[in-house]
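Review form for a predicted model. The reviewer records the input and the model, then writes brief findings.
Reviewer: anonymous (R2)
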Amino acid sequence: MPAIRSTLVRRGIAVATALPLLALAACSYGSDAKDDSSKAKVAAGSKKIDGLDSVKIGYFGNLTHATALVGNQKGFFQKELGATEAKYQTFNAGPSEIEALNSGSIDIGWIGPSPAINGYTKSAGKNLRIIGGSASGGVKLVVNPKKIKSLKGVKGKKIATPQLGNTQDVAFLNWIADQGWKVDAQSGKGDVSVVRTDNKITPDAYKSGSVDGAWVPEPTASKLVAEGGKVLLDESTLWPAKKFVITNIIVRQSFLKEHPKVVEAVLKGSVTTNKWINANPDDAKAAANKQLEADSGKALPAAVLDPAWKSIQITNDPLASTLNTEAEHAVKAGLLEKPDLSGIYDLTLLNKVLKAAGESTVDDAGLGVK
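Model under review:
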């Protein structure tokens, strides 16, 4: 997908047209928007929540959206929703999911930090809220070991990122700057050649030798390793406690206001799913892969699935402080006008659910609704 330019907006104040941070979600697999025809059975005698017929849920067909994959496959969301039907759509790009949220085609979505920031900023803080966390980690720098022997050896090489201004692109540009190297963010030219390449074709680009490595999310990273690549750096090692947000849960603000009980039910399903995933990692991995196959028609082979799954941490915590840091990295790279993210989080219902489940509550790093 070619790079696009968008106008970023502060809280109600238009700013100059800038490159979008945040052009894609953390990773992109599956179709742009695919309806999931599979339906979990509604228990006999169940009632609709607030009389609502259905709730429309969006997610990406990749492992960093494991909560949504497993929750769908195992019916955890439907169980909490009673006779209110959970309808699912899969996406492969952040902008298309944000567009679906804006238009009302979905009500709740699992999405990466970059499009969440972009969607919030472009609507002057009036459309979405982040209501929960889902995953951390799952991003690696994988290189051709014949061409690159060390981190210093990245200089002068061609390294792929998913798209100009997406989450991994910003992280790689920030890492390059920390090495003291210079790269023009827009063109990707400089001490390192940053080659923006769709995740779906990055393995082929690697095999052909058109790129020497890639800073990419799972399962693309493990696909490259299966092709002979070597993990040179796991991004988690660059973050405090080795944690950083890769997937959040967002909701349309109007839906949150009109149907808080439905949103609470989905969050209950998410917390239940995350607990089950962490308690049953092998079964959860199989369930996620089964749903990937249902959504895309193709399951991941064990050589890719197993290492990819191990590198992702499933969490209820949105890791709010790291979202703010990611935005700062984009500003530093010159890809984003400094945004006002105050109010992007509303963790009220999540913390209510966590308390009821006897689990620790989570923090919004001062970026919650007042």
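Findings: The longest helix spans residues 260-279.
Further findings: The mean pLDDT is 89.
Recommendation: see findings above.
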